[in-house]
Amino acid sequence: MPAAVTVTCGASPTISEVLQTTSGRPLTITVHGTCTENLVITRDDVTLTGTSGGAITPADAALDTIRIDGAKRVIIETLTITGGATGIRGVHGAAFTVRHTTIQNAIGAGVAAIYSSQALIDGNTIQNNAGNGITVDYSSSATITSNTIRGNRQDGIGVYETSAARIGLTETGVAAGNLIEANGADGYDGIELANGAMGYVYGNTIQANTGSGIGVYRQCVLRLVGGNTIQNNTTGVYVRSSTLGTSLYSSSAPPDRISGHPGSGIVAEENASLDLRGGITITGNWGAGGIFAQHGARIMMRQTSIIDNNHPNPSGSLPSGILLQLGSSVRFYNPSGTTSPSNTITGNGAYGLFCVDGESSYIGSSSVQWGGNGSGDQSPNCTGF
Predict the structure, then answer these.
(1) Across residues 221-246, what is the average pLDDT?
(2) 158 in Cβ contact with 137 (< 8 Å)
């Protein structure tokens, strides 16, 4: 039979006592006031919900404020969770939802799903945590939608160790982008994928993060599928020994846009692979320019605009549209059955395509609309395959 209990903080019973002593399933616990407890949820079908002003702070700040240990169908909603080692952590195959909640000021991450756990994280404010805003780790998965993730000292969202995250799209394919801003004061990224992780990213605003807007490191796959605005981070997207693919989730999806980065729009290195299509625009970046590819990076490009990357660098040098060096390459091509150039590389400060050395090369110049690049369309030492 279902059970419902109201807890008035400071009085008996506590939330922990209700979890331990109340029979019934599902169990709904409504929180009034600010409760000071470290909660461990091990039973399935628990909803923890707050009235206006409902909040939980840890009795022991060295422990998680809420820990969901293997429990399924747990919902945390309309609460303020402040402090703790982690604000909310699901472990050991937990399956949980966090929605319409503020999670802040934890010693580590705001919300974490680890050790084969699954999380739906929707409509929250996740801010000012000393670790990540959200961590998905050790073969876990998360759907992350409609959140504001700001001011966390490490990654806004970190997805690691063969984990996967769907960021900005619901499980039914409805657009629900996140605002991911001003994270990474300790040198981290807005979103980071590392060590075999995958990210499927749509419709987010990713801005003003200290490191890259998105960092993709060590055998990961990032899919940008439209509607993302990645702006004013140090680097737009940084891809190392990994794969970046861009396309449009649907015919009505707006293209991705990467702009305003002093460390280049996209950096690809150490055998990274870029498959750029679907109308992505890379504009207004400086550093090396729109795309900086080195150490054997490979680029395939159609329906892509690399335009107006012409902001002077502090040294006085001007950026190029694409810079290749150390054995990197780019293939420009058109969609099947079309002959008009589908790529645009115009208005960049130095070259449209700058090959620093003879080891780097390109093919498919006729698939590009060139023009207005300050030093010319291709540097003299750029060679075909």
Answers:
(1) 98
(2) yes
pTM: 0.98
The β-bridge partners of 275 are 245, 300
Cβ distance 265 to 241 under 8 Å?
A: no
Q: What is the DSSP string of 287-346?
A: TTEEEEE-SS-EEEESS-EEE---PPPTTS---EEEEE-SS-EEEE---TT--S--EEEE
Question: Measured on CA atoms in the order 23, 25, 31, 36, is the torsion positive or negative?
Answer: positive
Distance from C-alpha of 194 to C-alpha of 215, rounded to nearest angstrom: 8
Average pLDDT over residues 324-352: 96
How far from 31 is each of 19, 163, 282, 347, CA to CA, in Å? 13, 33, 48, 58
Integer Cα distance of 351 and 46 in angstroms: 60
Backbone Cα Rg of the chain: 23
Residue 383 clears pLDDT 90, i.e. is over it? no
Which pair of structure tokens corresponds to residue 229? 């605005």
| 384 band by pLDDT with thresholds 50, 70 and 90 | confident
In this prediction, residue 385 has a pLDDT band, given cuts at 50, 70 and 90, of: low
What's the pLDDT tens digit per position in 74-100? 999 999 999 999 999 999 999 999 999
> In one letter, which amino acid is 194?
A
First to last CA, the chain: 71
Identify the bridge partners of residue 91 per DSSP, sorted by sequence position. Answer: 69
Angle at 98 between CA 94 and CA 104, to 5 degrees: 110
For residues 274 and 365, give the distance between their C-alpha atoms in angstroms, rounded to a whole number. 18
φ, ψ of residue 366 to 5 degrees: the values are -70, -10
SS3 18: helix
Given a cut of 90, whether residue 351 has pLDDT beyond it is yes
Token output for 375: 């030093």
- Predicted confidence (pLDDT) per residue in 252-273, tens digit: 889 999 999 999 999 999 999 9
- What number of CA atoms fall less than 13 Å from residue 361's CA on the CB side? 6
Query: Distance between CA atoms of 282 and 260, rounded to whole angstroms?
Result: 9
> In angstroms, rounded to a whole number, what is the distance separating the alpha carbons of residues 297 and 291?
11
